[in-house]
Specification:
The protein has 14 helices and eight strands. The chain is mainly alpha-helical and 308 residues long. It folds into two domains: 10-116, DNA polymerase, domain 1, CATH 1.10.150; 123-306, Intergrase catalytic core (hpI Integrase, Chain A, Orthogonal Bundle). The strands form three sheets. It has a three-stranded mixed β-sheet. It has a three-stranded antiparallel β-sheet with strand order 4-5-6. The longest helix has 24 residues, at 70-93. The protein starts with 9 loop residues before the first helix and ends with a helix. Residues 1-6, 111-117 and 265-285 have low confidence and may be disordered.
Length: 308
């Protein structure tokens, strides 16, 4: 039985996860985790699971599966993410400090078979990325993703997954209402800065009432962002933009904004919550109102910061 500590060590966490697998999964699934958990325990022996940074986990994945098939790398990445999701729920139930899943800040390359380094792109470079985008629709899609933290499906929709995307009636100034988000809630709220809301409002005024706001699919959105990024020697994807803005707020010391942006269902966002965010110290995160989020954007995410 695991010793109940404030923060669990690697071997205790692995022991608890193995017990969970034994009770809730098939023998084949249990065996499929054997090598990953053994290597994870060996690599990070004596360390606290919640203090392992995304970069350390990336290096771990690279060293074991980076030179093999991309499918195998993805499978082990998914298993590692499953392990962390279980651990976050475990510490929540036991009243320990919560933290954000570090696997949410790890990208897997589609080519080359290695986990990519999700290095933080400087604000000035992100400003250059936006400022050199000539197409109005492309600019708006990108600006919303990189400031409000929306997932691609929440912006443009995904009929296969039952995601409607963003409609005109879901936009009220700077407040975006997200329908059927990943968390399973009926709706969630995102906020965009004033310098994004104003051109969005002008864009909407020129559309027909029944016209889709962003009539593109994911492949088009991906190509728009990745192609323009490559032109500036930046490795960007729609998913990275969400991670970038979460990391940006963390670097500003605004963990409550990070929590608001990511909208993780594993966090008790309706209560005062002790959260261990991205490997930093445990702190108390108080849920923010839309007005408070807008005020913080005005202070820390002003247009002058990107386009000085």
């Amino acid at each position: 039985m695991m010793t109940k500590l404030q923060i669990l060590l690697t071997n205790e966490s692995v022991e608890g996860f193995r017990a969970y697998l034994l009770e809730n999964t098939t023998p084949n699934t249990q065996r499929s985790f054997d090598y990953l958990l053994a290597e994870f325990e060996k690599e990070f022996s004596g360390q606290h699971v919640s203090e392992l940074s995304p970069s350390k986990l990336q290096e771990f994945l690279n060293s074991r599966w980076g030179n093999g098939k991309i499918s195998v790398l993805r499978q082990n990445f998914s298993k590692l993410k499953w392990f962390y999701s279980w651990y976050i729920k475990y510490v929540q139930v036991n009243g320990m400090p919560l933290f954000l899943n570090p696997c949410d800040l790890i990208d897997i390359k589609a080519d080359g078979g290695t986990a990519s380094k999700s290095e933080f792109v400087p604000v000035e470079r992100m400003g250059e990325f936006l400022n050199t985008m000539k197409d109005e629709r492309h600019w708006l899609m990108t600006a919303i993703l990189m400031t409000a933290g929306l997932r691609a499906s929440e912006l443009i929709g995904d009929p296969r997954a039952g995601k409607p995307g963003l409609f005109r009636e879901n936009i009220n100034g700077r407040v975006l209402t997200i329908l059927k988000p990943k968390s399973g809630r009926e709706e969630e709220t995102a906020i965009i800065p004033k310098w994004v809301a104003e051109p969005l409002d002008n864009y909407l005024k020129r559309l027909n009432p029944d016209e889709r706001i962003f009539p593109v699919g994911y492949s088009t959105l991906y190509d728009v962002i990745s192609t323009h990024g490559k032109w500036l020697k930046l490795n960007l994807t729609p998913n990275y933009l969400r991670k970038w803005i979460a990391s940006y707020w963390q670097r500003q010391g605004e963990s409550s904004m990070t929590s608001f942006i990511l909208r993780h269902s594993s966090l008790k966002v309706n209560d005062v919550t002790s959260v261990k965010t991205l490997g930093w110290e445990s702190i108390y995160v108080v849920p923010l109102s839309p007005k408070e989020v807008a005020e913080k954007q005005d202070k820390y995410l002003a247009e002058s910061i990107f386009f000085s």
